[in-house]
Amino acid sequence: MDCSTLNRFRHDVYDCFLRSADTLWNSVDALMSTTEATSFPEISQSLWFERKWPSLYKAFEKGRIDEKRLRRTFVSYLKPPEALHWYWIGIDASSIARAEAVTSADRTAQQVHNLPECKKAVTFGWQFSTVVVLPPTPSSWTYILDQQRVHSQTTALEVAYAQLACLVPQLPAPAIVLLDRGYDATWLWCRCSSLGVGILGRLKSNRCFYRVVPPPTGKRGAPRKDGAKLQPKDRSTHGQPDGVWSGTDAKGRRVEVTFWKKVHVKQARWLDVTLIRVVRPHASNKERDPRTSWFVWIGNQDADVVQIALGYVLRFGQEHGYRFDKQALLWEKPRLRTPQQFERWSHLVAIAHNHLVLARSLVEPQLRPWESTQRQPTPQQVRRGMDKLLACLGTPARPPQPRGKSKGREKGATVKKAERFAIIRKTPKLPQLVPS
């Protein structure tokens, strides 16, 4: 990455703004360089925001962004994979809490996972599905490919498939998609099997698989459609595996990998998958750190299953990226009224995030006295040094033009009370698969 390439990226992203482009771009520069901002309007106090603070809200109210073009721009500046000649892709959904925003439409019930014991671990708000390229080591250096809101009429799994269907044909190299237990669904496995990507998903313990159908016995009646049962939580059904590997992971800790090939589920007997068990004796065996984990591999059955299974640890880099977006880039801070306005803000957060990733080698990280110099720099440390780089790059945005004072409302105009919206509690269901 050099300054000319980064400058071209800035102009290509600027061309994705169809309305209020100058204010939106000022917001991007201010967001990724103003580390002391703790709220949405404080972004307007940055030296890189050339306008007054009311224009910040007006830009997200009336601005427009070409989402398809922005997605293509992100993919076109994607760096080649560093190892193994494929991309590790992570997909996850994150909640934006809006529990008291009664004037905001399309809010749904969202489960809160990272809370201590409480009566109701549920909040209300919007949910966003994010597709990222994971770094070679779990860290905040993820690269966002797409970010979409999960509407109340659909599910996170359907949105994830739609995102993959758009992105996979544009990727310059093969990809392996890493999914957590929230995406344990046969419907998603069947759809993704036709996209030409590998799927490594974490399983729930109550899943049930079946082996290859045994040869006919010659007895009367319909032939068997499924072989012997294989259920992760029932040791008596495991039988003889197709392969066992024992070794150490990237940190030198002991790991055991066992796998069973060519198994299937009843809802999709035509889909052959590989069942993988990973045992980590050093784990604390708590809910967040289990010693035994089960995965399903959907893709090339001749691939190195052990190498793929050990790569699942990279998925936790997406959690680090979420934390950086929410804590540093103020993703969930703005109290924008409509979901469309918040979608534009989410796109700007993704632009600022990717901008820092691309500018990583051009910026000297600014470390605090208590921060270690032996570790790789974090996005926040690079963000502190963006002012110097932005001064060299310039901005594609045009300077503001004074327009005089507003005439205000017409005489006799009445201001109606903002419309209230009820919370949508009904959860949509996935389309049903017809058993083969």
TrEMBL record:
TM ranges: none
Region (Disordered): 218-248, 393-416
InterPro entries membership: IS701-like_DDE_dom, RNaseH-like_sf
Biased composition (Basic and acidic residues): 223-237, 407-416
Domain (Transposase IS701-like DDE) ranges: 13-255
Name recorded for this polypeptide: Transposase IS701-like DDE domain-containing protein
Entry superkingdom: Bacteria
Native organism: Ktedonospora formicarum
